[in-house]
Design goal:
This protein is of the alpha/beta class and about 375 residues long. It is built from 14 helices and 12 strands. The strands form 2 sheets. A 6-stranded parallel sheet has the order 2-1-3-4-5-6. The protein is globular, with a radius of gyration of 21 Å.
């Protein structure tokens, strides 16, 4: 008989208020763990994370060293956005016998030295994508870094629109590179389409103003909507109207918008060299009879835009991305009914292949409490050994 699962205390950043992938992952993970019979407490940590002030890091150390009692059946997991820039707090917790696990959504490129110290003090590191786990292992020489990919809630199949509707769901942030998407759309004004860029305009108001200005500059005001961040029924309406979604971030550890799209039968275009390619691959068919070397049949496509991260770093390279390859790919999709039908078929097939959040929760529980893990996921090897 398996021992009861431990209680989980999940420390998350209180300063990320928009609907980020990290926030969605944390909430869905907590719900999945609770459905497995695990008690979960989500504890927002106030601070200007990552790094925060000296006083904020001191308070974090206090939370880590006093929130649980050594020897009790409670596991603390800290969001990497909080932990990675606060190595002193992580080291103090480890010295007191309270070393927490770190759930890392994205490498902390600006402070790699702090991140290395913080992760070395952790009980273990769980990344939310295999590409992030491999990068963290390579960058810091860490062994045993695990990966727990995001799950997906299968949504209703999107009806689509006429003319075709393009959808990009991401906060308006420089890394998400909505400007390169608008540059591509500006080259397609001879074709029929509409688009919506759905995401928070308050996460980076300056960049959001640039995006709005680009819509005006290109004369796309009648075609491109900027509705801000949407949730619930309003967001579902956008997904239902979509025929194609796009995630062209410069850096992406995974890209949950990709699997959310495929979960509704909507194909996706993602940027090469990012973790979004891994997300798209979860919905890929390995159909028999494909030519050797052809690779899996993706529910969408991967596009090279230039300005990609250097192969030795997840930092974007200098120089602006070129929107022309994206424009050319979109033109092919918009003008070729057969291609649109094939991508749609692949997305509908990929919808059936996506793992649920129960799989993510079992995997995380298998890492932090393998003896209590239902389903046997604790036998999986670390991501850096794959």
């Amino acid at each position: 008989m398996l021992p009861p699962p431990p209680a989980i205390r999940l420390l998350v950043p209180a300063n990320i208020r928009h609907n980020s992938g990290g926030n969605v992952y944390n909430a869905a993970l907590a719900q999945g763990l609770e459905q497995l019979g695990t008690a979960v407490t989500i504890q927002p940590v106030v601070g200007n994370w990552p790094v925060g002030s000296k006083e904020e890091r001191r308070r974090l150390a206090g939370l880590l060293t006093t929130g649980t009692t050594a020897g009790t059946n409670t596991v603390t997991i800290v969001d990497g956005l909080v932990a990675s820039g606060a190595p002193e707090a992580m080291e103090e917790a480890a010295e007191a016998g309270h070393a927490p696990w770190v759930l890392l959504h994205m490498p902390l490129d600006e402070h790699a030295d702090l991140e290395a110290r913080a992760l070395r003090a952790a009980a273990g590191v769980i990344c939310t994508s295999g590409s992030a786990a491999a990068e963290i292992s390579r960058r810091h020489g860490l062994a045993g870094v695990r990966a727990a990919l995001p799950g997906t809630e299968r949504g209703p199949v999107a009806d689509g629109s006429e003319p075709p509707r393009l959808l990009a769901v991401a906060a308006l942030l420089p890394n998400k590179d909505q400007l390169v998407l608008l540059g591509a759309l500006a080259r397609l004004q001879d074709l029929e389409w509409t688009a919506a860029l759905v995401g928070s305009a308050t996460a980076d108001p300056g960049y959001a103003r640039q995006v709005a200005a680009a819509v005006d500059h290109y004369g796309l005001g009648s075609r491109v909507q900027l509705p801000g961040e949407l949730t619930g029924g309003a967001l579902e309406e956008q997904w239902d109207a979509a025929d194609l979604s796009l995630l062209v971030s410069k850096v992406e550890a995974f890209g949950m918008a990709v699997t959310e799209s495929v979960a509704r039968g909507v194909p996706v275009i993602v940027r090469a060299g990012t973790g979004a390619v891994e997300a798209l691959g979860l919905g890929a068919e390995t159909a028999p009879g494909r030519p050797n070397g052809a690779g899996p049949a993706l529910p969408g496509a991967v596009v090279e835009l230039g300005g990609e991260p250097d192969e030795r770093s997840s930092e974007p390279a200098d120089g602006e991305a070129d929107p022309e390859p994206l424009a050319a790919l979109l033109r092919s999709w918009l003008t070729d009914p057969g291609l649109r039908a094939e991508w749609r078929r692949r997305a509908l097939a990929g919808r059936e292949l996506l793992p649920g959040w129960d799989a993510t929760a079992r995997q995380v529980l298998g890492y932090v409490a393998p003896k209590a893990s239902p389903g046997g996921h604790s036998s999986q090897p670390p991501a850096d050994g794959e």
